[in-house]
Amino acid sequence: MGKYTLLKKSHKVRRGRFETVHGTIQTPVFMNVGTLAAIKGAVSSMDLKEIGCQVELSNTYHLHLRPGDQVVKKLGGLHKFMNWDRPILTDSGGFQVFSLSHIRKIQEEGVYFNSHIDGRKIFMGPEESMQIQSNLGSTIAMAFDECIPNPSPRDYVVKSVERTTRWLQRCKVEMDRLNSLDHTVNKNQMLFGINQGGVYEDIRIEHAKTISKMNLDGYAIGGLAVGETHEEMYRIIDAVVPHLPQEKPIYLMGVGLPSNILEAVDRGVDFFDCVLPARNGRHGHVFTKHGKINLMNAKYELDDSPIDEGCQCPTCKHYSRAYIRHLFKAKEMLAMRLCVLHNLYFYNKLMEDIRNAIDGDYFKEFKEEKLANWNGKA
Known about the structure:
Elements: E1 3-10, E2 13-20, E3 23-27, E4 29-33, H1 45-50, E5 56-59, H2 60-65, H3 69-74, H4 78-82, E6 88-91, H5 94-99, E7 104-106, E8 111-114, E9 121-124, H6 126-136, E10 140-142, H7 154-179, E11 190-195, H8 201-212, E12 218-221, H9 230-240, E13 250-252, H10 258-265, E14 271-273, H11 276-282, E15 285-288, E16 291-294, H12 314-318, H13 321-329, H14 333-359, H15 363-374
Parallel strand pairs: 4-5, 4-14, 5-6, 6-10, 10-11, 11-12, 12-13, 13-14
Antiparallel strand pairs: 1-2, 2-3, 7-8, 8-9, 15-16
């Protein structure tokens, strides 16, 4: 079981430390997304250390299909497989239930899929999700849930949340069983539950109260950043956070822009993840202290300055905007690598600066200054 220590609290803002079997996580933290045990854009686990990544996130569904969780287990688990000795969080496959809605069928026992790779039939329920994650041996396993599209009819949301609660109970029982087995890769694997309820505050609050009684290792807010406005998202976070255990980590799934992260930290969130920095980087969209810029723009053709003046990432130390723009135009994969490295460094450094600001009692001023500088561009 992980140990979360609240080091400091100012209003709702939390500064914590989460001790795990694979090392200590300083929070608030941004988890770098490596869906298939790799960051898209030719970024290695060695690179992740250089750019200050604390936690890597991989995907249960995708690794189950390829190379297969049994293969990963035979090779010693995900940490050994990808050569990463810090914490790993695996998501449960629940989001794929949402994103692959055209090729799945939800029942009480679980979800029937067709593989997006070769069309073969797959079944995943709470027990299967836990078994796959146990084979992967991640530090933190996410409970299997249904991510509800926004907007959804209230009566559907109520039924879905009730089923997610039943699935969570099944996840907990199965996780306890798996952690007790001799051949389990990581017998200290932790389980985070997920709060759902769409944009209905009362359903969200009731669900938060229910799952809080289950004494899990951490709690996530799921089903946001899937079509609702930023204001709706902040409203739900405001409603839910007070009803989750304050002595456990709180994780906002799939969020988001740097401005979203600042707003959510202000509302008491500890953990974040998003594909956005890496995805943007692969298309030449990079984050700077003045907001996001597109290196494809003609105005950078002769720009010999780094992406972000003063940035200490490996890209900004050595290469110019003009050179990276040329690489994109020439379709050289180095372009993607350099921009993904920069964007992930930007996010990891932002989290470090947030932690320092909370420690130094100047988070409010820090947040206002950053938002003013980005001016809606990040």
